[in-house]
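Quick one, tokens below:
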């Protein structure tokens, strides 16, 4: 007995109906098969006319066919299928001679369709996508009694026109050929996923359920009929649907042009909240105008990745989320296979930097040599970290780095990695002042400076750490390659910084502020050591939620949603809200703890300056920590610390609405402290 493997020499890799009738090869395969699983997209029983010769022998040998179709059918198919699921209305059961099935198909394909279903030789299921989108995948899998399989994919629907009139192309894969088995397995998996109603964006129904719910409609003969059909299913008047078209601001257009002129590589530096994400989207659109692409977007956190997903949902492109998904490898593999098979030619993959250097991910990228690859790095300074930078591979043809602060703090080597890979800063013409007062894309803000002093115990600890650091740095000068000393100095520096961050006097001043802002939407940036005291004070005044790395991503996401809705008034944050997240409704920020890293306070300020309909002006409260005047006069060691604090204050002040008042406050403060 023969099977599919006997056709190995006759089944070529690719067929197109410009040079051969596709139905010829399908008929040949059907005669050897026992199982035929087909996703047919558009379907008409007249397709059986083209396949009558193969189907006649296929069903005579007790072959079974499973067919996944869209919800619109030709009138005659609709009426016959309706009979098969409504037995009470069948006055006379259809009887056919299976030996004459070929001629019966040619005479009345719709009648044969109903007979095949009634006799359990054919099973049909209906699939409907989100917003009643049409299933547009076209693939088939044949299997013989020996377990050999042949799969195909291409442009052909399961219609007579596809087989006899149109110019179509299909590609074949045989599971006994080296390198082709994974493709056949992938097609089987995909068919099974939809057949068993396991699609992510699609729902699959049996014929009876589809008719029962009124999902199946007679295929329209014109565009007007199509609009009416979609309206009746989705209850949406599609004449009123207008796709939101986002156009770039002039400065975003200049940024895109600069990137294009620089060989589609470069760093775009903009203040937080000025639309770096949208600018990247416009760059993506420029690429898509030119050619198909495989785009990878990386960001520091899952929450920021979610924002990228939302940005691309209206772009009409496949989005593959590899973050927050333990099965991301299999999901990515399926999408990459579709790219390799050319069943999809535009894919956007979104993930966190934790995955950027994954060997599996890099192998998948390298497995698709014949399509352009585009890398978008959000908060791109993160790519300079030694481990993450392993993902900066040469396979990315186009590269775009986004950051308000592309240089890494005290890390020249890491900064070099970022600039060497992405090229230079090609756009940085927007200052914060311009964004607020000229372009009016960010909210105005008032900056409130709260001065507190270290107590004697804190001063004593600060002095001890400083003296030890001075000793270690002197040793380092003599032994500059001693990495252990580097670690010690870093550890001492962090311990000394904690004294400033967690100054006891901050809590007393914070208690006064919370009374002033308890009815506003506020974000409080704290250190881990301040959490208990701050939480207790906030609990007494307003509804709040913590937003830290202790909570899982789902809890944090719900906290943000409740904050935006006003169900909670305050977010108490440790680090998590430092980068990238949109919280436009927040109008008050209290910076209880800050480091000397300029990126941190620039990002935090950015969280509060995004425009919102309910926000006229943001209010930022910042703590300025110094020793007492007596301590400053007795030692020079505090000057460096005060200098760091002053840099932040000057940066915050120069674009604030109350800049003049702040300038006067600082002068008085300097006189008071003798600095």
């Amino acid at each position: 007995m023969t099977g599919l493997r006997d056709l190995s020499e006759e089944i070529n890799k690719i067929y197109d109906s410009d040079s051969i009738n596709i139905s010829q090869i399908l008929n040949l395969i059907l005669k050897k098969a026992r199982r035929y699983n087909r996703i047919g997209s558009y379907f008409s029983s007249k397709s059986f006319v083209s396949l009558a010769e193969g189907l006649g022998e296929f069903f005579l040998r007790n072959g079974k066919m499973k067919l996944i179709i869209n919800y619109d059918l030709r009138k005659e198919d609709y009426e016959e299928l309706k009979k098969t699921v409504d037995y009470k209305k069948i006055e006379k059961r259809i009887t056919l001679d299976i030996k004459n099935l070929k001629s019966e198909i040619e005479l009345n394909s719709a009648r044969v369709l109903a007979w095949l279903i009634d006799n359990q030789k054919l099973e049909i299921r209906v699939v409907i996508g989100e917003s009643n989108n049409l299933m547009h995948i076209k693939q088939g899998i044949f299997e013989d009694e020996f377990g050999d399989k042949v799969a195909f994919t291409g442009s052909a629907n399961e219609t007579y026109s596809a087989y006899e009139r149109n110019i179509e192309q299909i590609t074949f894969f045989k599971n006994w050929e080296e390198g082709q088995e994974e493709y056949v397995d992938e097609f089987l998996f995909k068919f099974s996923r939809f057949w068993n109603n396991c699609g992510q964006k699609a729902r699959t129904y049996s014929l009876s359920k589809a008719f029962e719910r009124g999902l199946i409609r007679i295929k329209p003969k014109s565009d007007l009929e199509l609009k009416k059909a979609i309206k009746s299913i989705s209850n949406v008047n599609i004449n009123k649907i207008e796709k939101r078209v986002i156009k770039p601001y002039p400065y975003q257009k200049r940024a895109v042009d600069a990137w294009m002129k620089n060989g589609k590589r470069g760093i775009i530096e903009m203040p937080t909240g000025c639309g770096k994400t949208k600018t990247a989207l416009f760059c993506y659109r420029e690429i898509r105008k030119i050619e198909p692409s495989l785009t990878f977007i990386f960001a520091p956190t899952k929450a920021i990745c979610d924002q990228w997903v939302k940005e691309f949902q209206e772009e009409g492109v496949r989005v593959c989320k590899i973050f927050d998904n333990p099965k991301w490898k299999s999901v990515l593999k399926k999408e990459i296979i579709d790219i390799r098979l050319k069943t999809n030619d535009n894919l956007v993959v979104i993930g966190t930097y934790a995955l950027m250097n994954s060997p599996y991910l890099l192998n998948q990228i390298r497995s698709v040599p014949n399509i352009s690859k585009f890398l978008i790095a959000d908060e791109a300074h993160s790519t300079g970290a030694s481990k993450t930078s392993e993902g900066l591979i040469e396979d990315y043809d186009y590269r775009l780095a986004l950051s308000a602060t592309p240089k890494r703090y005290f890390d020249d080597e890491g900064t070099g990695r970022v600039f060497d890979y992405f090229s230079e800063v090609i756009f940085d013409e927007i200052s914060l002042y311009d964004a607020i007062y000229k372009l009016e894309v960010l909210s105005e803000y008032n900056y409130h400076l709260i001065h507190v002093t270290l107590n004697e115990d804190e001063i004593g600890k600060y002095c001890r750490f400083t003296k030890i650091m001075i000793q270690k740095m002197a040793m380092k000068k003599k032994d500059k390659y001693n990495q252990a000393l580097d670690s010690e100095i870093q550890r001492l520096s962090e311990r000394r910084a904690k004294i400033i961050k967690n100054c006891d006097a901050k809590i007393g001043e914070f208690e006064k502020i919370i009374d002033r802002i308890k009815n506003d939407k506020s974000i409080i940036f704290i250190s881990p050591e301040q959490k208990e005291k701050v939480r207790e004070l906030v609990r007494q005044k307003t509804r709040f939620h913590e937003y830290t790395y202790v909570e899982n991503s789902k809890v944090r996401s719900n906290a943000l949603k409740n904050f935006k809705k006003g169900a909670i008034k305050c977010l108490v944050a440790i680090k998590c809200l430092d980068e990238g997240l949109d919280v436009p409704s927040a109008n008050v920020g209290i910076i209880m703890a800050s480091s000397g890293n300029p990126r941190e306070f620039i990002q935090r300020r950015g969280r509060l300056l995004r425009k919102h309909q309910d926000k006229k002006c943001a209010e930022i409260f910042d703590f300025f920590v110094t020793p007492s005047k007596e301590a400053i006069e007795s030692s020079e060691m505090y000057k460096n610390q005060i200098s760091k604090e002053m840099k932040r204050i000057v940066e915050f002040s120069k674009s604030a609405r109350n800049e003049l008042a702040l300038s006067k406050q600082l002068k008085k403060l300097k006189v008071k402290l003798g600095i």
